[in-house]
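As noted in the main text, all predictions were made from sequence alone. Below is one such record, for MFS transporter.
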Amino acid sequence: MAQAQKDQENPLLNILINVLAPVLILSHCSKEVGKFYHIGPVWAMTAALALPLGYGIWHFINHKKLNIFSCVGLGAILLTGLITIYLWSSEAAKPHVALIFGLKEAIQPLLLGSLFLITHRTPSPLFRTFIYNESIFDIRNIEKVIAEKESHPDYEALIWKSTLLFFGSFCISAILNMGLAYYFLGDLTPSTPDWKEVYNSKVAQITGWGFLVIGAPLMLVGGYILFTMIGGLKKLTGLDTDRLMVPR
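Prediction:
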């Protein structure tokens, strides 16, 4: 039990380091002068990117395994850094900042969602890891009844339909993320004064709101998927809800 607790990632620490801390750094530390913590836009961006990157490396060293979501997150951090280097390579802001950053923001949820489709036919589908898993459903009993009733094709079709729905929630997140980038960065032009500081502030807002934009569709669609999975499994197996779910 102690080892399992050690291996389990702390979700609050994850949110603090990967979302809240970068948002606060970019929002409050990007000014050149003033307070002691005003370290300028370059160092603020560096610190904001270094925190989640360092945490990802630390997590891998301590847990000796790759978390697919952490890997995608680290990829997004590195991509943010590369885009920032490109955008800051000239004194004035480049045109189409919103488009460039918006595409980056859309890629992350699309990549995550695509992994659910790609792993569907593998021995470890992500859908079964995060939604249809043995901590929620009594899968052993369900699949025993499915085998007895010879309903395996319909059973697989139900899982595939639910996987597609989950992928759809990531597509919604991608569209909303693109909209956020245009909303916050759309007015950033080559004539914007102190544009690097403004850019950092806008990126902080996108990061904070993006966490909600990705999370809200996932929660709503996840709840709907659970509802449809339970209804579909009832029809296929004849079991009631109590026998489908793991006792609490």
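The longest helix spans residues 195-237. DSSP finds ten helices and no strands in the chain. These features were considered when defining construct boundaries for the mutagenesis experiments described in Section 2.9.
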